[in-house]
Amino acid sequence: MSNADVLRHSIAHTHENLEIRLQRARAMAHAPDQPRQALEVIDAFLAMASKHLGAVDAVLVPAVHTQVDDADRLVHDYVHAEKGLELALAHVKARAYGSAYDADRSWTSVWDDVADSLATHHGSERALGEALTSALDPEGLDEVTERMWGAEAGAPSRPHPYAPHTGVAGQVSRRVMHAVDAFWDTTEGRMVPEPGRRERGKPGKFAQYFLADPRFDEDEPPET
Known about the structure:
Number of strands: 0
Structural class: mainly alpha
Mean pLDDT: 85
Number of helices: 7
Order of helices and strands: HHHHHHH
Radius of gyration: 18 Å
Largest sheet: none
Low-confidence stretches: 196-224
Number of domains: 1
Distance between the termini: 29 Å
Strand content: under 5%
C-alpha cells in the first residue's frame, strides 16, 4: 500500500464511521425511555455527516474541478447524491424534534431513506476520490486529505439541502451556516463531535495514520 492510496482510505474510513454512527442512531430512535440520550446520539450522527459533506464541498470538489478532465460530470453526479443525503438527514432532524411534516412517518422509513442515500453518496464521493487519485501525485493527495480533515471544523453541523454547494456562493453559504449552526448548537445544548487534532509532518502523518505506516525522525528521542 502506498501513500497514493491515502485519499481512498480516508473516504472509506469516514464512511465506515458514518455507518457505525448511523446504526447507533437508528437503534436509539427506538428507545423512548431514553429520549435525551437518543437525541444526543442522533445529533452526533447528523453533525458528523453534515460536517463531512461540508468538507467535501470545500476541498474535494474544487480539487476535482481543477485537476480532473471529466470534472463537470463527476461533480454534477456528486452534488445530486449529496443533496439527496442532506434531504434524508433533514427528515431525521425533523422527525427527532417533532416537526409536523414528518410526524406521520415511521422511523423505519426515515432511516431506510438515510441508509440508501448514504450508500449512493459514498459511491459518488468514491468516484471523486478515484479520479483525483489518478490525477495527483502522493504528496498532493496527502495535502488534499489533510485539508479535508481540517475543513470539517469550519463546516456546518446541520444539513442544508437547499443551500448553494459549489463556487463562491457555496463558500459564503458554508461560512454563514457554520456560524448559525454553532449558535443554535450552543443554545440548544446539542452534541457536536469535533475531529481531534493531528500534527502534520513529512511524509504526511495523516497518511501514516490511514496507511498504518508510521515513520519517526531519527533525531527525535523515542517516547518512554
